[in-house]
Every structure is written in C-alpha cells, then in structure tokens.
Amino acid sequence: MTLPELQEFIRQMYGWKDEQRGAEGTFLWLCEEVGELAAALRESDQDALELEFADVLAWLATLANVKGVDLSRAIERKYGKGCPGCGKLICACGESVKP
Ligand SMILES: [Zn+2]
C-alpha cells in the first residue's frame, strides 16, 4: 500500500468521523498511539509492536487527511533530494544534529 492509497483508505473508512473530530482531537489520538508505541518498544512482543506502528501511521494519515496534507508530496518535498540537513543521500550531518 502506497502513502496515497493509505490516505484514501483511511479517508473512506473514517473520513466522516475525522472531519467531525477535527485536527486537535485527532492529534490527541495520534499522541496516545505514540505513547502505546513507546510502551510496545519496551516489550519483546514483535506482533504487538507491529500493530502499534500501524496505529501510529494510521493516525498520522488521519491527521494529514484532516489538514489536507498529501503525505507522499510532503515526504518527497522534505526528503526527496536527500537529507534536509546536509543534502546528501547518505547523511553526513554530525550525530548531534537533527535534520
Ligand atoms: Zn544530513
């Protein structure tokens, strides 16, 4: 599944609910799922970890839908030509630098 396919899939499944909830409520759900991912990273249950990654990605796609952001376009703009920090395809930024 590509990012555009994911966003459309989520839109069809939850779009009407997402519009009613809005960006702020959706962002809170995303944060909750990130917390659940953090908890899963501490465990050794690979199956549960995989599902938490799915939840985080689904809520990120949901938030992007609510705000009218095309994730594929966004990632291409930001990372399509390499690291945003140094511009290289294999990052050469210092380890303390967040791109
Ligand atoms: Zn870099």
What's the structural blueprint in terms of helices and strands?
Elements: H1 3-41, H2 46-66, H3 71-79
Helix pairs in contact: 1-2
This protein binds zinc ion.
Descriptive account of the structure:
- The structure is a single chain.
- The chain has 99 residues and is mainly α.
- The chain has a domain of 66 residues: MazG-like (Helix Hairpins, Orthogonal Bundle).
- Zinc ion binds next to loops.
**Major sheet:** none
Number of strands: 0
Task: Identify the bound ligands.
Answer: zinc ion
Could you report the average pLDDT, rounded to the nearest whole number? 96
Q: What's the CATH architecture of the domain at 3-68?
A: Orthogonal Bundle
- Tell me, what's the shape? globular
Q: Report, as a whole number of angstroms, the end-to-end distance.
A: 27 Å
In CATH, the topology of the domain at 3-68 is named: Helix Hairpins
Annotation field: number of helices: 3
The CATH class name of the domain at 3-68 reads Mainly Alpha
Could you state the order of secondary-structure elements as H and E? HHH
